[in-house]
Amino acid sequence: MPKTRRVFLQSTFSLAALFALRRLLAHEPLAEMGLIQPGLLFSKADLPRIRATLQRPEFADFWQWANTVDLDAERRFLNDELNPHNLIADLQRAQSILLRCAFMHAVAPDPRQLALARLALRRVLDYPRWDWFLEGGRHTVSLIRGAVSCIALALAADWLAGDLSADEQAEITRRMGDEGGPSCYRAVFGMTHHDKVAGWTMDHTNEGVTFVDVSHWPAILDQTNIRITATSGLAAAAVHLRDRHPDAAAWLALAQDSLKRYASRLPADGSFEEGVGYWDFSFTHYVFSVEIMQRALGIDGRHLVNYPAMARYALAMAMPTAGNPTDCINIGDAYSASDGIPLAWIAREFRDPTAQSLATSPGAIRSQWNSAWAAIWFDPTVPAALSADVPLDRLCAPGIVVSRSGWQLPDGVVAFRSGGPNNHEHADRNSVIFKAHGERLLHDPFHADYSPYKPKWLLRQTEAHTAVLIAGRGHIYHHGEEGTNASTATATLQAHRFTAGWMLATSDATDAYRRAGLPVLLVQRTLLYLKPDTLIIADRVRLTEPQPVQARFQVFNDDKCGRVKADGHGFVITRPAATMQARVHAAAQQQVSTGQLELPPAEGIYPYAEIVSPAAREHTLLTICTAAPAGAVHGTIAVAHEGDRWTLSGNHLKAKIAVTLVFTGHDEPYVTL
Fold first, then answer.
1. DSSP strand E in 531-606: where?
2. Which of 27, 64, 148, 387 has its CA 20 to 30 A from that of 92?
3. 617 in a structural domain
């Protein structure tokens, strides 16, 4: 271990703390107190409960998938097709086979599963490196793949303990000590002490990797989900090698420090800057670390995070739609609602009914190897129900306004992106998502490429969002030189008010557009959501020179069922279960048209409607959107405009609408209802 790391340990932990740590590693007197439990995640005594859980309807898809995987195809892959120079896909698949087969054999002993698990173990051990990041050009830095290798080997050694040979167990111990623990330590230490890193690069002998500049990644990744992935691998190595490796105590100490450091930076309300999909990924690994430290060493980390608040955040970001029960408010790269893994643990540990409701919701238990953890942690005695304190309106990090009319599939949901930059973000300031009657009506596209060299990098840009363009250009972003890290784009939420029947929010994104070199004085968007079916969008743009302004409205078409049609006064978006009619009013003559993102047809068709306000220094666009179930007739809303005052009156479905908006200066508009 380099001297700087030893100095870190000596300065961070007193002699008394290290002595207490030795007692923990020696299991004294915690085993006698019942704080240490057998098995990293479960013991033999837990197997009947786990087997019963796997027969529940919520786990049916996972259990069928796990039992019907083509074992011959998996064997062929491991024997003949695995590429030892491909860690990003092939090592990941080998890890998944190992973990799935080891779990299957543990709960339902099967010589075929055992044989495949042992073969996958051999192939994982054969990799000379477990990750494609290097420090000083030589030493592996394990951010994801190496961390999962540590987890996979620790669990395989535990779950297959009676079926592995002494040589296999010894090889697991050796590789965890030589490669796994040190490489995860380098990752976590580097993210904690940026100035002590010898320099991170990427291993160019690896295949399938997009090569970018990672020299700043120790600082960039410090507060991201990757810190916790690396920490979970470090925790697995430390726990597995306790009492058997001279650095295990140091690894454990750094893992504990990392969990505390990460927890201290989280928003107090339980929300998560990188989006709900990355919350799920992060806290699957976070609670894994907490769980194995608790079971093996008696270290209780459950107090570090407000887990019930996080379950409520996961609920706030869930947005089931027709045909997609795991749909979510997909701000940035996070494209799916949380699965049941961390939620099952939260429900069990805190007897939280909201977490249990989400963990047992349709699609929450997915067909993936670590859904086994949800089965291990699931407690059927916890009731499943939404808590009475769950709000319909809230503000989530990093500045996302969420407003809904209820929690059922037909209910309306609006999400409005304000706030600052964050990892995995898009160029999406002031963008909007609108769901009603089970359909996405205003959309934020899924699955943007992580590589700037691939076509769907376009999906990260402002032009692929329901947002404003200035002369066809969006606000500041980057070109992926360092990956999908944060830009410098910021929007400021100027107003946010709500009642049971409406929500008002105003966001100023001027700075984000100015940083792109655009001649802007003001880029402001106001949303007035009249629940459940009417959304009023007011855009104001002021410029130092005449430029045209476009407002785009994206259509969900991943299933090839999205349609949009424009006329002189607006446009209509049609989905199978609902329609959205938009009527456009402007201070000057505007044009309404439709188009699609400039992507190769093989990448999908991404239609949109666009309002164009001709070149001028000042632009005001008012777009009145009404949603209705398929076949229903939209109401009529009249608009009167005099100076800075706009008056709306009419009705839609069963709602009467009477609104006045007055725009003054750069402040949020004055609104009366």
1. 534-554, 563-567, 570-575, 578-586, 591-596
2. 64
3. yes
